[in-house]
Amino acid sequence: MPDGPLQNLERDAMSKYSSTSRAFQKTRIYVLNRDAWTCQHCGKPLDESNAQADHLTPKSKGGTDDAWNLVASCDKCNNDKSDKELVRQNWWNTDWLAHL
After folding, report:
1. Which residues contact 3 (CB under 8 A, 6 or more apart)?
2. Would you state the pLDDT for residue 81?
3. What is the pLDDT of residue 28?
4. Rounded distance, CA 51 to CA 13, Å?
5. Is the pLDDT reported for residue 12 higher than 60?
6. H helices then E strands: how many in the chain?
């Protein structure tokens, strides 16, 4: 298989998050594509250097790594949100719901 942008991105994500499973990285790529590589909190375009998959319900509060519990987020918004639940905080941009 030729080495294309998606394969490079997946490999880079695996090296950046080496403690995270390969299955999560595939879900992360799916979520970033679903959300059109746009931060669902601030609307900022994302690229390989600042793209994260943010949990709506944090894992620390019982959330899962399922795609329905993740949104595309920039580093800043994900760090600012910390472990708050987005649904209860009314923190999110609801436009992404149309893509589900």
Report:
1. none
2. 82
3. 94
4. 10
5. no
6. 4, 2
Q: What's the pTM value of the predicted model, to 2 decimals?
A: 0.66
Residue 83 three-state SS:
coil
The one-letter amino acid at 4: G
Q: What would the two tokens of residue 94 be?
A: 């609801």
From residue 82, alpha-carbon distances to 61, 90, 99 in Å are 12, 14, 24
Spatial neighbors of 49 by CB under 8 A, at least 6 apart, are none
Structure tokens at 30: 């799916």
Task: Give 90's DSSP letter.
Answer: T
How many CB atoms within 10 Å of residue 7? 11
DSSP 9-53: HHHHHHHHTTTS-HHHHHHHHHHHHHTTTB-TTT--B--TTTEEE
Question: Does the pLDDT of residue 10 top 90, yes or no?
Answer: no
